[in-house]
Amino acid sequence: MDEQHKVILLLLLLFQVLLVASQTDNQDYSGVNSLTQSWSNKPQNWVGYDPCGSGWDGIRCSSSRITQLKLAGLNLRGQLSSAIQSLTELDTLDLSYNTGLTGTIPKEIGNLKNLKSLALVGCGFSGPIPDSIGSLTRLTFLALNSNNFSGSIPRSLGNLSNIDWLDLAENQLEGTIPVSDDQGRPGLDLLLKANHFHMGSNKISGTIPSKLFSSSMRLRHLLFDHNQLEGSIPTSISSVSSLEVVRFDGNQLTGGLPSNFNKLEALSELYVAHNKMNGSLPDLTGMNSLTYVDMSSNSFNSTGIPSWVSNLPALTTVILKDNDVSGSLNLSKYSSSLQLMNLEDNGITELDPQNNLPSFELRLANNPICLESGAQEKSYCQVAQTIPSYSTPPNNCSPQSCSSNQISSPNCKCAFPYTGLLISRAVSFSNFSNTSYYRELEQTLLDTFQKQSVPVDSVSLSNPFRNSTSDNFQLTLDVFPSQTDRFNTTGVLTVAFLLSNQNYKAPEFFSPYIFKGANYDHYGGEPKKTKSSNTGVIVGAVVAVLVFVVVAFLAGMYAIRQKRRAKRSAELNPFANWEQNKNSGTAPQLKGARWFSFDDLRKYTNNFSEANTIGSGGYGKVYQGILSSGELVAIKRAGKDSMQGAVEFKTEIELLSRVHHKNLVGLMGFCFEKGEQMLVYEYIPNGTLMDSLSGKSGIWMDWIRRLKVALGAARGLAYLHELANPPIIHRDIKSSNILLDHHLNAKVADFGLSKLLVDSDRGHVTTQVKGTMGYLDPEYYMTQQLTEKSDVYSYGVLMLELATARRPIEQGKYIVREVMRVMDTSKDLYNLHSILDPTIMKGTKPKGLERFVALAMRCVKEYAAERPTMAEVVKEIESIIELIGLNPNSESATTSETYEEAGGVNTQHPYREEDFSYSGIFPSTRVEPQ
Q1: What does the angle CA 747 – CA 753 – CA 759 come to, to the nearest 5 degrees?
Q2: Any idea which positions bind ATP (predicted)?
Q3: 732 and 606 housed in the same domain
Q4: Is 361 exposed, middle or buried (0-12, 13-18, 19+ CB in 10 A)?
Q5: Domain match, 677 and 693 both
Q6: Quick one: pLDDT at residue 533?
Q7: How far apart are the first and last CA of the chain?
Q8: In what order do the strands lie in the sheet with 632-638?
Q9: pLDDT digits (tens, 9 = 90+) for 686-732
């Protein structure tokens, strides 16, 4: 090692000699060197002493001075140090999409007096925004959104007299909106050249200052959504005639819109939903540019719909959901451009004319008109479906079957795309099934990249999704490289910069937008740099020698380390023999499931952030994740107290890899390292059946939908029992293990307790009792003999839960016993009025309910031999749906406790009468029939 140290020292001395020939200013080199001392993952070609002369990635120079530092999307980690002030000629600084950059912004950033563009989008910065940024008077672009900044909006930003784009959204900023005052202190009202105020998703409070707006402003996009603003919208807003998008939704505003609001003739999108506004619906007559209006979840009142809905020529969307609109809805006249009118949860009593439905989508669920007999079958009374799926189709070619993490591009080439989320903050269309919008986005993106000479082969959009929290519309964007299967660093930097700095101009229907880039881990060969001078050749040669020596040494050490790690992994990993034993019959060949590292899943879930949490329970938490491909997944992370043994965890993976059915949740992969057990599933967007029945998810389940959910779950179970080889007993069927997809189709989930029924088991498995109390088969509980009929019993309880919306054990009452007590087959609806869910009793009598309950009671028979098979259950539910006149193939915190018996046979019935006689503790909730 001593000899190696001597060689390195000699090379460093040689660099010092050559430094005098560098093309980079010494101050700038020292500044960059100091800046990156705390960084990891900096570009690979950042070697030597001449950033300008050697063409370091992300650095641009002029006359030996560094003028641009563009390092977006490089997965940099560390902090931004005060050394940044050394780069005094810097006019562009972009560190966006580096979530590993944390800490505070140094006040010394205010010394960069030449800075025109500062973009720190989607990093991990925190603390207050430094006042010193207000001294950067040449700034035209400031994007600090999607970080963790706290404190108030600095008044000093009012000094940025040249600012065009000001984006502070998606932080933790609080306090009031600063405006200039009599003491000479600046405020946002002085930013007369600004086109964009983007302040949404913070904690900004107080009233909206009247002084904020003036006729001298040129604002186009005013976004203060999802804050804590109160009071009314000031009339002064109407003086800003240039406004195109206004968002004040998700606040606590009161009153109505200003009476002169219709002076904003250039306004295209208006969002004031989810406030406390009231009074008559405003008069928007004359606002001929208006395309999208959302006033939902307020207390606006109106008899019928105002005339401007019919007269505005560009109007596509009117959302007045959850207000006080009443009376008759006149459909004889409306704007020809209209795509959606949402009047759910109002007081509409009739349509005029009744049988002349409009060409646009009309939503009237939960209005009096939809409570009339037979109204639930009307299209406008149905619960709105989610956004249709979309993925860019191939360009007249056949998609390739790609290896590893590669994806087939629209031009059918396997590659590693650069991926992220393209998010519209004010989408102005509602017809998401019209793919022309997506095609236009794709074409404009591709045109921008090609005009900038970026090596892009094609772009792909997928996974359209509307965020119910922010009301933003997002798409996954994949950008594919040309001529090779992966981007080099320069390619990623260029693509990321064009999107982070808004150089890509989105179509009006998608503007304003933001982009959130993912880390790129597949860099290819970097372009070779050439120099005309002899000095450059010498420096390059010395650098090459040094790099070769260091890389060779590190590669050797890395290889040794990886070999040792692989050996340890093979000894400790219970999955290590899967590949070797694939023909032995002891483990299945995995189909589509892949091994994810812990670091991968931590990255895909933004370090398992609370914002990504979509579910939790005794087992741990479920997180939404976005793979490097842009695909949404659900990642189930076991809690420390609910870890399975390695064998049991492996069993669940094996089971899921065997089964493939549209009513079963698909497994995509798993993680078993660093003391973690995680399963990666396909993302099911509408949560659990339990959440829907309880009202937690906000999804209204009518009787028809419940029948179809029951049918989907039954088909999934029938597949496990009769078509899987060998058959599989789920052993934990319950409403929290039934998930609902985009079309509210049921998918059976969670196979952690499942058992294989092999030939040697002769129809049953003798095993310790596991399951969930309330759903648990009593015969299995008492005999430890597990059969497919145990799943049938649990499914029968689930059917009763669908009919009653009650938990299996609720306030000391067992649902099966309660139904038995009330049920009388000689009476209408079997005398179940007092126990049925009132939601399904609205309007007409739920057809087929008696047969449905009778089937459920057969499923929960005391003895397994008396219960039907799941195949018989499927046929019966199909018959009920057909009886109603529908096609069964068309799409469309519990008090139960998890039970695990340590051993021994139970001689007592699990649901004895005396076990649930809690009347002294819980009051009775039973209501006698009227």
Answers
A1: 100
A2: 640
A3: no
A4: middle
A5: no
A6: 37
A7: 92
A8: 594-595, 667-673, 676-682, 632-638, 620-626, 613-617
A9: 889 998 998 887 788 889 999 999 999 999 999 999 988 788 999 99
Residues in Cβ contact with 110 at an 8 Å cutoff, skipping those fewer than 6 apart: 130, 131, 132, 133, 134, 135, 136
Domain that holds residue 428: 407-517
Distance CA 918, CA 642 (A): 30
CB 477 within 8 A of CB 420: yes
What is the edge-to-edge ordering of all strands in the sheet holding 513-517?
Answer: 456-466, 473-481, 418-424, 513-517
Q: Is residue 722 domain-shared with residue 860, that is, in the same domain?
A: yes
Query: DSSP code of 528?
Result: P
640 assigned to a ligand binding site: yes
- Extract the tokens encoding 891: 């799409």
**Is 702 a residue of the active site?**
no
**Do 649 and 728 reside in the same domain of the chain?**
no
Q: Burial level of 797, CB count in 10 A (0-12/13-18/19+)?
A: buried
Total domains present in the chain: 4
The encoded tokens of residue 602 equal 């931590």
Q: What single-letter amino acid sits at 228?
A: Q
Which among 732, 750, 791, 837 is annotated as catalytic? 732
Averaged pLDDT, 841-857: 89
Q: In the predicted model, what is the mean pLDDT of the chain?
A: 84
720 and 655 housed in the same domain: no
CA–CA separation, 118 and 103 (whole Å) = 17
CATH number at residue 706: 1.10.510.10
Are 191 and 143 part of one and the same domain? yes
* Same domain, residue pair 152 and 247: yes
Nearest to 434 by CA among 335, 365, 340, 311: 340
Report in angstroms the alpha-carbon separations of 587 from 576, 578, 580, 721.
Answer: 11, 6, 10, 20
